[in-house]
Amino acid sequence: MKIIVCIKQVPDTTEVKINPETGTLIRTGVPSILNPYDHFALESALNLKKKHPGFTVDVISMGPPQAKAVVQFALALGADEGILLSDAAFAGSDTWATSYALSMAIKKIGKADMIFCGMQAIDGDTAQVGPGIAQQLGLPQVTFCEHIEVEGKTIIAERHIDGGSETVELRAPALFTMIMPKDHPYAYPSFTQIYSASKKKFSIWNAQDIGAESHYLGLKGSPTQVSKIYPPKKETETQFFNVSAAEAAEKIVEIMKKEGFIK
Amino acid sequence: MPSLDAISRNLMLDSLKAYAKKKITYDYIREKDAANECPLEVLKEMYDTDKLGVHLLMIPAEYGGVSGGTYDIYRICEQLARIDLGIATSVFATFLGTDPLNVGGTEEQKEKWLKKIAKEKLMVAYAATEPDAGSDLVNLKTRAEHVIKNGKLAGYSITGAKQWISNGGIADLYTVLAMAPGGPSWFLVEKNYEGFSPNHHEDKHGIRLSNTSGLSLDNVFVPVENLIGAQEGKGLLQAQAVFGYTRLMVAAFGLGAGWEALENAIRYSQQRIQAGGPLSDKQGYTHKFLVSHAANLEAARSYIEYVANRLDSGEHGLQTEGAIAKYWATESGNKAAEDAIQALGGYGYTRDFPVEKIKRDIKITCIYEGTSEVMEMTIYRGRWQEHLKTRGEFYSAMAKEMESLHALNPNVGADACALSLKALGTVLEECRINKLTRHQYVTFKLGSLIAASEIAWSFCKTAAADKYSETVKFDKKTYETMARVNAKNTALRTAMEGSALVLSAVDDPAGFAEKINLKEIEKKQKGLLADMDFIASSLKSSFKAR
């Protein structure tokens, strides 16, 4: 089977701060990383490749030229081929335009059996691109996957649902979005793997290469626009009372009366 | 030497950091440090090609390595030093031990041994030093006698003692320098050779995670094919050929460990509230413990990168440059670490905080691969020849370059640097006229002043460039200010310390002050405090408290 993994380079959000005056992200000195959800999606695809001889894993990303770093990282971890969609025409694309561009690239690669995406990216947190690609390509999709197995022609996807998990069986082609398990020990490549990755096939495609229509790309092709980014205001405050249960009950009643919740 | 692409290099650094974060925690290091124990299990994993394979960096790809260039190896060495200088030293010992092969090995020897080191994850040790021969290798006492079998040279019988050998007790393979009938030569000795035995692991002041042992060689038979380069008498040349490069790596250690200590102090200064505010807001603290060290270390980085790029572009030797880089970076790092303890006060003096250990560790960088004093001598010798050969033009030309640079970019202190270089040339010339270089003290001091001015020259050029290298973490204004502060400090130091040397022999102090343009140098000090204030505030925003 041919698996395509969609990956994104994101700022390490544990290091990002927002300038409260301008509302913009302070990116200076902030390292860029592979979106952890995508990292897990990639590892899931590579595990299938290890188990099933003949499976191939290609990665595709969209971003500025420096996003090549995450593609090369994915190649070092074991992906076979890497593609970066990079063109000024893509700049400012929202989730719809991004899904459109990625789906056009996937069409160009052709014959994909499974498409893996991270559930969402840690910078935008929209969780829309994966389902968007499935929609653009007319593929069935299984979201919030924790684990995927392939048995013969059957794909078995275990997906996270509130309070448990659900197992879905389906046939290729399909798209899967992967969640990020807590405390997952992410793999990192050895020096030899990194060196070999620099010799693997890597291509940069522009809008023309994927046959995308320019009015569906970038800011002008995006139905949604970001008007402002700002850190949320802290509007609630927690008070702690280290008292006995009886005193606590009295305290609660007193506060509820004061706030007008009860009379 | 070819270099890796920037992405591959940074991915390797990321993998090293990821491994260290998981396996080499401060608690782990602290425990091994207290027990004076080399973390063999960690080293084995670091050499495991499926996990990391850090030793592959200096082995060419055709022999199973990843063909790292000088710049790549400097970056990894800096990062290793930030993790633990003992572990860094152990990895470096393999790099160093492999060097005689890389430089002087025959094709067959490279094919056999480099491939073996890469594939079998061999730890290597470089065995040159002896109880009576450190930097003075001419006094080598270890002997390699011919062993003749059936009328043919079958090999060598090596007898002698080696001292302070990093990886001495744990290596699989040793490159041993011994005196053969044809002169000093390198030999490959495997750990299981009969008559070869390592001594006890030394109880050291610092880098206690690095195994250091003496070696005893008692009639050790080494087959003739293990003579590196298949020719006797090339040993010292092969050793010297890589000094520019190996000393650059120790410079990277000084840089990495020095910055690690300094970053600790910068972050701490924002948490520690004294007299109504954080220490980071107090000039008496920031300007003493942080600002100059940051400028000195970034100056060191600029010079290290300058030399690394020259070596990667195919230049050989660069012994004087390697010595300048090592001298400046390790002395600056050592001072930064010393002050980091003071900056953390009582906490800094305890082993709960890493600066205490960094301070103990980093001292070795001023000692091994040639002490700071050997560096001063090497730098003086190299540049004194240039001064004589060019009749003083060497530093005039560099000064002119700085004047032109100042016209293009007045923010990096190139004007002060030009004055420093001119004053340096004048001091050298005055030393020549008054025959002051008969005094060893003068020559060492000149070595130190030469290093300072050339470092300032490099930093001014780097800071004035349109684009900075991937390692520069500061914005343009901060970086330019650091270069300016460094240049101002250097100019005044050259004038003051240069004068102190010359005035011991001349009768006209005022005349000499005029010759070195002391008044202009003094004028350039204007604005120094404001510059230091600015750097202090930039350091605070660059390294926030965690």
For this entry, give a set of tags.
heterodimer; A: 263 residues; alpha/beta; Rossmann fold; nine-stranded mixed sheet; two-stranded antiparallel sheet; B: alpha+beta; Butyryl-Coa Dehydrogenase, subunit A, domain 1; Butyryl-CoA Dehydrogenase, subunit A, domain 2; Butyryl-CoA Dehydrogenase, subunit A, domain 3; three-stranded mixed sheet; 19 helices
What does this structure look like?
The complex is a heterodimer of chains A (263) and B (546). In chain A, the strands form three sheets. Chain A has a nine-stranded mixed sheet with strand order 11-10-9-12-8-1-6-7-13, with helices on both faces. Chain A has a two-stranded antiparallel ribbon with strand order 2-5. Chain A has a two-stranded antiparallel sheet with strand order 3-4. With 263 residues, chain A is α/β, with parallel strands linked by helices. Chain A has a single domain, classed as HUPs (Rossmann fold), CATH 3.40.50. Chain A is built from six helices and 13 strands. In chain A, strand 9 and strand 10 form a beta hairpin. The mean pLDDT of chain A is 92. The longest helix of chain A has 16 residues. Chain B is of the alpha+beta class. Chain B has four domains: 117 residues, Orthogonal Bundle (Butyryl-Coa Dehydrogenase, subunit A, domain 1), CATH 1.10.540; 107 residues, Butyryl-CoA Dehydrogenase, subunit A, domain 2 (Beta Barrel), CATH 2.40.110; 128 residues, Up-down Bundle (Butyryl-CoA Dehydrogenase, subunit A, domain 3), CATH 1.20.140; 171 residues, no CATH class. Helices cover 59% and strands 12% of the residues of chain B. Chain B contains 19 helices and nine strands. Chain B has a four-stranded antiparallel sheet, covered by helices on one side. Chain B has a three-stranded mixed sheet with strand order 1-4-5. In chain B, a hairpin with a 2-residue loop joins strand 8 and strand 9. In chain B, helix 5 runs antiparallel to helix 8 and helix 8 runs antiparallel to helix 9. The radius of gyration of chain B is 24 Å and the shape is globular.
